Please model this.
Amino acid sequence: MARRLGDEAAEAIALSDLAGLRRMQGRAGEALVLTDQALARRRGLGVLPRVQRCLNNRGLLLESLGRYAECETALRESLALARQAGDADGEAVVHSNLGDLYEHSDPRAAIEWHERSLVLGEAMGDSRVRESGHRNIGYAHLTLGEPAGALEHFDRAPSISDGVDWRSGSQTRLGLVRALRDLDRSERAARECALLLERAERRADRYTAGLARHQQGLLHRSAGRTEETYEQWELTLDELDDLDGTDSPVVEELRDLLLSHRFG
Model:
């Protein structure tokens, strides 16, 4: 409809929203194509705050696709625009995404970026930014092999804004399950995993449900319930066809695990 009316602003919004949906489905490649189309229109319109946010989204998608150099370029441009506009919220989000990027090469530096984002969130009283900061610091600690440090932040995050942002909250709970599993706190990990799966199914979010079932399988395996583990993972791949065709590494990991089980 936007194209029929020649409304480029409305078209850019629709493209960005559709990109967001593809990202939530785990289809980062498709989301990037749509984001680039939206960015071209936003640059043409010259509305810098919209360009800044679009660049930030572009960086986030490039990071998930492993295109790290392009990611940093997009995020640095987004950060410059946020500072130019005095947009503390935009700056906090870019700091967070730069932290995600640096986690691949230097998790300690990643924590510093996330702490900058957290400081801005505290100053603004923004629960969304604060929750995101704690969640991301938790993931950086997991990368460093420090599950106890990770658990501290994963435990703090839900108390800030649990339920406000489903995507953020679900990622926090996935990290929480991983930290608990690494600490051999299997009973609580199983409870948290079951809660996440219940919430995902209530929202018909099959992608997140698949990630939760993946963690359930890992918990079963740690408990020595081998056959139950592989039955769970078979069910995940059979039932959650929404995972198929995504950019998530979980799908390939599950296929490799099942293949090694069948022929190992």
About this structure: Residues 185-264 form one domain. The chain has 14 helices and no strands.
